[in-house]
Amino acid sequence: MIDFYYLSGSPFTWRVWLALEHKALKYKRIELSLEKGDLKSDSYLALNPRGKVPVLVDGDFSIYESGVILEYLEEKYPDFGAHLFPKDIQSRTLSRRLINEIDCYLWPTGMRLLMATFFTPKEKWDEAKISNALAGVLAEFKRFDDYFSHNIGNDALTSVEFSMFPIVALMFRIEERKKDLGFSQAVNPELTRWFTALSGLSVFQLTRPQHWS
Ligand SMILES: N[C@@H](CCC(=O)N[C@@H](CS)C(=O)NCC(=O)O)C(=O)O
User: Fold this and answer.
1) Which of 7, 104, 134, 208 is deepest in the core (most CB within 10 A)?
2) 135 CB contacts (<8 Å, ≥6 apart)?
3) Taking the complete model, does pTM exceed 0.85, yes or no?
């Protein structure tokens, strides 16, 4: 049995949940709470000394870092459910590059925008800081124009979609809270088309953070 340590709303845990579902694996989802300090408890730090989610425990093997977890699931369970990476070596390598770009470049810009909005009380919002963070997010998303234009977003789900979707969802969620953010007007319409198409699929609906509804 696989134990999957999860935090609602975390894009890195969301991608692993999507992958577990996509591969139709049996797993137990263990929900952690930041407020209760679950991530910094001794027992959790023994699984991940960085005190971050996600962690996957598969029998006697425990692993953290979501991108590596996706690779592990694909290699350990090649014949379960659907594949998480394309078979062809060039497509697979390009997928890994995209995931690296998401983690190293896109996510840090998204995190800055989250910090300036979601994690700052409304009365302390600094509009200059927010628009600066938004500019960073938009510049990064622009680099993925080609991806959004060529990904039809329904029958070729891979780890790239599972890594990108939670971040895009978070950006739209910020805009729900700050209606004049201007994210949806500024991004490539192909991104919105892609997001709408994926949002309609059952795997994304099933895994949507419960506290978001
Ligand atoms: N590179 C890590 C990032 C994990 C990460 O940053 N997780 C965040 C949630 S999105 C976390 O656990 N934050 C809690 C903390 O830092 O205390 C991965 O891909 O798993």
Assistant:
1) 134
2) none
3) yes
